[in-house]
Protein 1
Amino acid sequence: MRVISLFVMVLTLLIVGCSSSGKFTKDNAEDQYAAAKNLYERGKYFQASEAFRLIVFNYSGVSFIDSVQYYLGMCYFKDKDYILAVAEFRRLTRNFPQSPLADDAQLMIGKCYFLSAPKNAGLDQSDTYTAISELENFIEDFPQSDLIGEAEELLAKCKARIAEKTFKNGEQYYKMGMYKAARIYLEDVVTNFDSPEWRGCALYLLAQIDRKEKKYEDSEAKLINMLQTFPGHKWEHKAEKLLRKVREHMGISQQASGL
């Protein structure tokens, strides 16, 4: 009897141990799904991912398999494993395009690429370009989604990062005195990006190049454009100071100019 009691106690401890580590022995997909979600909501993303993956493997035909697939992607996302997260979200959008979670998954793909790109705009931004493509696909494919505002906001952040990178390239050429090359990048920022910060900065440096090349009227026009279009810009005082210098070269008094 003592041996049997010891065996029962050990078996009980093993079952409890498995339960506490995130493993479970539920008999149906619904119970396993509930247990996996419980792990996810408790922040146990690695254990939850194992649990969701088991459901995908064992119960691929259940009606809520798209939700399982989505949460599997979210587990990897929460653990900042963006490569695996993209793979799972992509699997959802391809296999279940009519799922109510398809738009969420597509947005998450764009978010994964944005977050995996270096925050330093001077570094390789290939993932940011991919994020832009994925987010533009979202806006095109899900124009009625409740998430459209979030997608547009994230897309603007992506484009601002590329605008910063383009500006930094132009700024580097400007500092090297290579004004022709600098113009190409700076004019690209002004023409092709909506970011007020970097468009304003680009206009300022373009005005500086014009001044150095004694194109004072062009310089004046760019500075006026900057000050009027982007009031309160971080380089506003620098632009006002440069404008006064440019007008001195032109022989125009500040008082008479109106700006």
Protein 2
Amino acid sequence: MRILVISPNYSPELIGIGKFNGEMASWLARRGHEVRVVTAPPHYPHWRVCAGYYGFRYQKEKIEEVTVIRCPIFVPRSASALGRLIHLASFGIFSLPVVLALGLLWHPDVVLVVEPPLFAAPGALLAAKFAGVTAHLHVQDFEVDAAFRLGLLKGDRVQRIAFAVERWVMRRFGAVSTISSRMAIHLSRKGIAEASIRVFPNWADMERFRPLDHPNPWRSRLGVEPDDVVVLYSGNFGRKQGLETLVATARRLAGRADIRFVLCGNGAGRADLERAATGLANVSFLPLQPVEELNALLNAADIHVLPQRADVADLVMPSKLGGMLASGRPVVAGAAPGTQVYDMVQDCGVAVAPEDAREMSLAIEALAGDRERRIRLGAAARAKALEHWDRDVTLRRLEAFLLGTEGLEESPASAPLRTSEPVGGC
């Protein structure tokens, strides 16, 4: 089967949508499918084009049996509304001739566009029409909703127009999928027929991410004492994460010398966080770590933290949660009742009100003082990861859907799955 994937994010980006697109495409290629990806040069979460790539040049490369065509994209220096709008639109514009050419000349069997950005959707629909196949939209993030809730876009009239355009575009796809059941409900509220909605959650590699059974070198690297409690956040430092709550939480617990906060990652908000944490001896910052170091880092934690902004908590399902759970550690999450994250951490961690540093500090302090509870919740976290976040289970379901064999026990792939190492970051 020929599969065309369209998204501005792809390997070697280590986190976010690019990570999952890379793993998905490579997995499908190892199953014997011919996969081509139309994407941009790697730029996330640093918001700068990585070395060896060019922001305004077309490039072609082969990554793990996948043909990758990189299109020009504008990468803004600041996360302003206009900058982000131009960023997303530029990919839609510069990728259009490539997508249309592939639809006309390569004749894919499946056209899969990953949102954001919705700007790429018209090209995907045209390519599918040229090829005589159905286009599939996979929603990783409700970009239009988030833009208004975060204040990047404003105005009732603008909102009505934006949502109307979004609904019109989404309804043109033969199928629309997303990463959580709550997000699927949100799709149905936008007028998408329930029969055409599928849920394919993000995943974690259960072999790569697992509890360690040997001494962890990261504990000594972090300079923590054996009885210290490490509270870890690892991921993107972006606006939707609500990371300022972590600094406020650390400030509340500054008197507890045995509780150490480690914030690991990169992104547009890192500089602001470092300034906010000035003078806090209990907070350490690390750069985003390569994938081969990530499991040891996750295992260095005694408690994982997952803050969220209240105004977007029902629009996202943070992919980093899978690795947290797979490492066998409890999670303290900012999640309100009724959200997917709240449901997910109920029996393997603690859910507190989003953006509430007081509640988060109390939950962390309680877990820090109860090692047996941490062990119990950590075991439950690992079990939940195996049940809900297994990579091969999700991707076999996706493959069966794309092949039209959904509901059958085995999907007739032309070759067995072969393992390979992931591509490193930039």
Protein 3
Amino acid sequence: MSSKSQLNLYSSFSSNFPELETVLLTTDTGVVYTYKDAEHYSAQIANYLTGLNLKRGDRVSAQVSKSPQALWLYLGVLRAGMVFHPLNIAYTDEELHFFLQDAAPAMLVCDSDRSGTLQGLCQGADAPHLCTLDADGGGTLMQAARQCSIVFDTTATHATDLAALVYSSGTTGRPKGIMLSHGNLIENISVLVNCWGFGQDDCLLHALPIFHVHGLFVAIGCVLMSGGSLRWLQEFDVKAVMQNLHYSTVMMGVPTYYTRLLGEPDFTERQCASIRLFISGSAPLLTDAFVEFAVRTGHRILERYGMTETGMNTSNPLHGERRAGTVGFPLPGVELRICGADNQVLEAKGVGSLQVRGPNVFSGYWNMPGKTAEDFTPDGFFITGDQACRDDEGYISIVGRSKDMVISGGLNVYPKEIELLIDALPEVLESAVIGLPDADFGEAVAAVVVLVDAALLSEEQIRGALKARIANFKVPKKIFFAEELPRNAMGKVQKETLRKKYGPKAT
């Protein structure tokens, strides 16, 4: 796509909308919203934002519960040419302090229950506007927006203009703002719609969070870009998913969703009669789960691979063999290579560093030009940090992560961030955070802690200290105490040794 193209992501969505009276979204309580609702409510929000003198390129931060109104907020921000900055609802005030300082938003939208506390954070970050949006759609945002016009001329944006700023913590402990442009998202979503066969007859069962790339850009994007519909669950609940499957044709989920479905004795092929496609991502899908799902339902889950920085890079085929333990082939327009330690492409089979290049790849990290340069090769490939190999037929397998990231229940957990907090405790000499296999979450966050001489500290005291400062999904589920951490000759902690020592014992 030319950088001179004036294409707003919302305009790309709306050009594929069916008749506006067509149902777009049905909640699990039976409330129905149409494409006209999406058009009108997003216009009102865009008008409200511009009426406050927010400008094209301004960031709008949102720490809100999943609701149809949260979707209207996202679309309204896009229409106004502003930058959507989604935040995990589990983030603590301390975590939010960094995000607001770094992103410098013109507005923060949060739950009413948190507005008093976050008002001070906004003032400290010079964020001039604070609005509220609750899980039931109430709050000051929609109250004010409903007074505005339902007509808004979507702002023309360049393909390189930012549409979203999504933070992903780094190995240094400092979160990184990932800059995603309108062009990045338009290109990637368009490819997915074609590769996965989305159309107006599709209804996607949406049980994912919408502060995450998977639920916000991939799932919602495929529906809006194809004119389909959503069966909208506020959160994943295995019983609710089973009850709503027969309304749907597609389900996207993290591996945990599928293992929990398999844990239900009455989950059978009958529940999946209307489904044409199950898609899994955000974490590796175990081969055993893939095989059992196929036996139980007759469906072979389509596994794909992506990152916040790139959107989707690879996918198993819609038509053809979906191979367990692999993430399929590079998507159209995505260049992919596997390189050795010398950054030379591995021609033969072998494990190496996975690198990607294409219109889906982000432009860089917010206010971090040095880190951006470090993560791109001179010829423009993004170094993903993942280790991969390719078989004789071209299927890609992700075999490890050189950056030691833990993916728990589909959410990214970066060890350094947690280690810094544990190490700050006066009783702690040092710590190492690792991921251990978990049947439900894929990986469970675990910490190995070395105490100073004669210090006393319990697992619960460590957890209690962490819960006050980080989201609950990052708090280690298992804590082990050790006399020392294993290191190599260069002094680097050998986390693989820790994973073997504290992981499931071989039988």
Protein 4
Amino acid sequence: MPDSAPVQSFVEQFDALRGELPGAALPWLCDLRAAGIERFASLGLPAPGVEAWKYTRLRPLETTDFLPATAHTVNIDHLPTLLPQGGIDHRVIFVNGRLMQCLAMPGERPEGVELGGLADALRRDPEAVGEHLGRIGAPDGQALLALNTAMMRDGLMLRVKRGVSVALPIEVVYVGAAGPQPLAFHPRNLIVLEPGSRATVVEHHIGLGAGAYFANSGTEIRIGEGAELHHYKIQDEGAEAVHVATQHVHLEANALYDAFTLTTGARLSRHEVSVRLTGPGAECHLNGAYMVRGKQHCDTTTTIEHMAPRTSCREIFKGVIDEQARAVFQGRIVIHRGAQQSNGHQLSKALLLSNRAEIDTKPELEIYADDVKCSHGATVGDLDRDALFYLRARGIPEAAARAILIEAFLADTINEVAAEGLCPALMASIGHWVSSATRRAAS
């Protein structure tokens, strides 16, 4: 075991809690948890010596003693929604990683849809959960996913049966409620779409209170043949939060995974996604935008593996970095042998609004087939001076002109979002961030 006080602290927390974690009487789950904590103890916290963590160091975890989060309640009247009021019939709310039953408003669930918390699903139908949990995304070299596997207590459980289409988006609100002491929670989400089904999931991560907390989530997604999942995430955690999200997605033939992530919150955040296109005709859209300032650190790391012929992916991430903030984008597309006639496109663009802002970009292509179409690119720069001059020459103040250019830079990624009513909320978030940045610059 690495000589690390934070690692030892988490191991001791697991030893103290293992008997009361959901599913403690299930042998297969106990074995899964034990393997997770053993793997975490062996790997230790990720450090720059690990290639995938070359540009990100988890200093808050090294210097802060995070305690396990306990049950917490919040006032539903103070929780925002990203969807029009008529579109939140399917809404699930988690506080510090636990489902708040009294706040869940699922409305009229279509027949063939299982929606709720993982802890409840483990009590109700553990065999069905065991078919997928820990099988879509094995921790292997991912230490924090291994920790999540050991410590998971609750999270989203969504299963859509064969051929069922969920017409309205499912909004999932994850609340980090800071306490007098730094807290840690490890939600585990499991989404399974059977062949021919369709669903839209909108994640909204928010923080309440000014304290520090560690949200370490793991998500496993299986999309069956011909199924479609539209998956959107808005990360607006508290200012002192550490947000680490590890996600594994498995697509079968002719399946579609359409994803978008907007990142504005947390002191330190990492969004790590691994997608495997295992069946012919599978398609992945993996897009996002991020806006960071102050001393925020934002890391986006993605891997898309084409494992079957005629698969395709499109990946576009755009970022705006201000003041002393730092961003990381690592995107890797792998075309395996036998994945002929596959298409892969990746693009990373970033605006640096300060001479102290920084970004590390590492786009990668690995191609082991000869009949493919692939491209990747990365650009980093300041606002277009000619465009800024053009706007100012027409009487637009500099602050307003800069805001227009920043919003236009990010708008085309937002326009990729298919969920009805979500685009205005995303643009409003961008506008709020830009306005706040303008006020800070003027003060």
